[in-house]
Write a structure and sequence with these properties.
By secondary structure, this protein is of the alpha+beta class. It contains three helices and seven strands, in the order αβββββααββ. Strands 1, 2, 3, 4, 5, 6 and 7 form a seven-stranded antiparallel beta sheet that branches.
Length: 174
């Protein structure tokens, strides 16, 4: 009887551990997709600026802990500076299953996620040095010309105890 109980308890323990691991994997996968979406939003903004004939990094803030505010009704978004812990950084879920960050109550299903972006602009001198790049900065408008933005998208959950960060460098190729 003792051997049977030990075997049954082992099976139950493994099943519970497997379910917990599966749940954690699903949450991490969601967080990674939200972080990737933050980078894609900034890339889309850069590309839209190009298509409008604006400067590539027009209307992009510099700094840390910047939240994305999106209004699905108007299809417009804005960047909001904060401390990274404000409600502006909270990600909510809409009835149709989409996730947004919004200061309004358009989508009010709570999620455990918060997302912030960090922007660091790079000038020609910051990005390119060495003999192989001699004259490049002069060709693009001088050493202080903005040529790239480094964007980090940070998603946190479990009250900030867990996080995932995805970073990318977006260049002004025009």
């Amino acid at each position: 009887l003792g051997v049977l109980m030990t075997g049954l308890l082992s099976v139950i323990s493994l099943t519970i551990a497997n379910l917990v691991g599966e749940r954690e994997t699903a949450v991490r996968y969601q967080a990674a997709n939200l972080a990737r979406e933050g980078i894609e939003l900034v890339r889309n903004m850069r590309d839209s600026n190009w298509l409008k004939g604006d400067l590539a990094f027009n209307n992009m803030p510099e700094g840390e802990n910047i939240a994305i505010q999106f209004n699905p009704k108007t299809q417009e978004f804005a960047f909001v500076s904060g401390d990274g812990s404000s409600n502006d950084a909270r990600v909510t879920q809409c009835e149709d299953g989409t996730y947004i960050q919004s200061s309004s109550s358009i989508c009010d299903k709570s999620t455990p996620f918060s997302r912030t972006l960090n922007f660091t602009f790079k000038t020609c001198n910051d990005e390119f040095s060495g003999d192989e790049f001699v004259g490049l900065c002069d060709a693009v408008g001088g050493s202080g010309t903005l040529v790239a933005v480094e964007v980090s998208s940070i998603v946190t959950w479990n009250q900030g105890a867990k996080n995932i960060t995805i970073s990318d460098k977006l260049y002004d190729w025009r």
